[in-house]
Amino acid sequence: MKIFTVRHGQTEWNAQRRMQGHTDIGLDETGREQARKIGARLADEQVEIIYTSDLSRAADTAAAINAHHDVEIIATPALRESSFGIYEGRVYDEVFEEINWDFPDGGESADEKFARIHKCLDEILAGRHENVVIVGHHGTVKAVICYFLGLAPSERHRFAIGNTAIHCFEKDADGKWAMTLENDTDHL
Hints:
By secondary structure, the chain is an alpha/beta fold. The protein has a single domain, classed as Rossmann fold, CATH 3.40.50. Helices cover 32% and strands 19% of the residues. It contains six helices and six strands; from the N terminus they run E-H-H-E-H-E-H-H-E-H-E-E. It has a six-stranded mixed sheet with strand order 3-2-4-1-5-6, with helices on both faces. The chain starts with a strand and ends with a strand.
């Protein structure tokens, strides 16, 4: 079994270092080009199904990947970024000292986000598909990494997640998961 995760392409708010969370910000021109490139990069992979966040920046990236596969895409809010509550739309550097990263005001804690995403992963793995692409967000991919490597949410800060970066997880004959690609952006 092989699971690919892909972070969405760049948005204007990414370029401005604004907190997006559940705010539905679309891809900018750079992001659309990144999405085309990640689609081409994964064109030769055997993809059976694509799961994506329902936010347009992820869904549009998933559509660019699917242009090479023509498989079912399942969009779900379970794969969204964290809700950052009152901090959405603000520049990271402005709020870095002020924000409580474990529970943003009006937002979602890391534990709540991980529980939501891990439940979705349990459902994906219970399905019949062996080769899956999951398109999400910075926080989504970190939660997926921790899920497959058996790490606590507090370990999420160890990993870099670039726009349209690929992470790949493969299960061996003993049922153990290994990360075989990490933050791979060679296609850019």
